[in-house]
Amino acid sequence: xxxxxxxxxxxxxxxxxxxxxxxxxxxxxxxxxxxxxxxxxxxxxxxxxxxxxxxxxxxxxxxxxxxxxxxxxxxx
Amino acid sequence: xxxxxxxxxxxxxxxxxxxxxxxxxxxxxxxxxxxxxxxxxxxxxxxxxxxxxxxxxxxxxxxxxxxxxxxxxxxxxxxxxxxxxxxxxxxxxxxxxxxxxxxxxxxxxxxxxxxxxxxxxxxxxxxxxxxxxxxxxxxxxxxxxxxxxxxxxxxxxxxxxxxxxxxxxxxxxxxxxxxxxxxxxxxxxxxxxxxxxxxxxxxxxxxxxxxxxxxxxxxxxxxxxxxxxxxxxxxxxxxxxxxxxxxxxxxxxxxxxxxxxxxxxxxxxxxxxxxxxxxxxxxxxxxxxxxxxxxxxxxxxxxxxxxxxxxxxxxxxxxxxxxxxxxxxxxxxxxxxxxxxxxxxxxxxxxx
Lengths: 76, 352
Prior knowledge:
The structure holds 2 protein chains of 2 kinds.
Chain A: H1 3-14, H2 27-30, H3 34-48, H4 54-58, H5 63-69
Helix pairs in contact in A: 1-3
Chain B: E1 2-6, E2 8-18, E3 21-23, H1 32-42, E4 46-48, H2 56-71, E5 80-84, H3 95-102, E6 110-114, H4 120-133, E7 138-146, E8 164-173, E9 179-186, E10 194-195, H5 213-221, E11 227-228, H6 230-251, E12 261-264, H7 269-279, H8 300-311, E13 319-326, E14 330-337, E15 342-343, E16 347-349
Parallel strand pairs in B: 2-15, 2-16, 5-6, 5-7, 12-13
Antiparallel strand pairs in B: 1-9, 2-8, 3-4, 7-8, 9-14, 10-11, 13-14
């Protein structure tokens, strides 16, 4: 998956414009919540066959931290 | 563990939902947008919830009476009653005895409660099958919950999720060669993720009169409501349930295409659709009956079966997969034939 596709997916999970999402955007600022956690778990499972730990998501502060959880599957 | 029972049939299934309907849009806990997001994920905005005078046992009793009437089944032939629930009438005695008396069952019956939630219905079938294999002929399984009584209206992770329901299933010995395959698993690491922390015996119990400020401090920390970590629940489900279904299908030497219907625990729409997609199960084979009902814990599988009958009276049931998963962590799946089963349409509990 390309980085731009990953950012678009995060925007989709949160229901915000993709223009508002960059690697350095804070998750709190984007309104990341427990529903977003569940959607992200589903996304990682479906697209990358990855079992991401909810505790690891809870430790993420910026979008790039989330990207780090699925890093090996992101190109560029 | 994996098991197989031969010569056992599910004679009949009935379930009862309360007549009271609660709508999530009535809540002032969240904004309209937030409620919309949550209800989109859950797949329902209305739930059936009991009034304060109605217990799980009342819903199960109603279902059992109707089922025995429908089957024209003599209660003298019942060898045992199993009540599966997390919401009993009392700590002591087991609710199975209260139901034994109300249903006027014979003194030769065994009767006990099982404390399980979303996996409980399949566990009940497995238990009943095992007991039939060891000599019983007819076992009445009563599974249900009134989780709404354990939910804090201020907790956004649980306030919109749970409905109430009760069920009755008659499981009997059978001359045929029909098989029930079962896969069961447990992982106690999940115990804290779905839990009512206080109210039983691990926490300090208070005796009246409360006479010191220390006790007052303890009381403030006291939490008798259901706590649910939704992310951990979903992560556990993704980890274990596709594996369980795969094992079940392999053990039964069949294929997904040969299964007529998949009746998963009705947790929420997002989870059910995701599981179906991940396992390659066609959407039309996966029962989703959440709208207007909610997640009814141990009753959700029988309710999905009876709702399927209510919404499609002509439906023919065949080889079915039942899959329960949740509190514990606990999971249980069964592959069985429902073609000879009397499935009643969902019953509504009458208001007093």
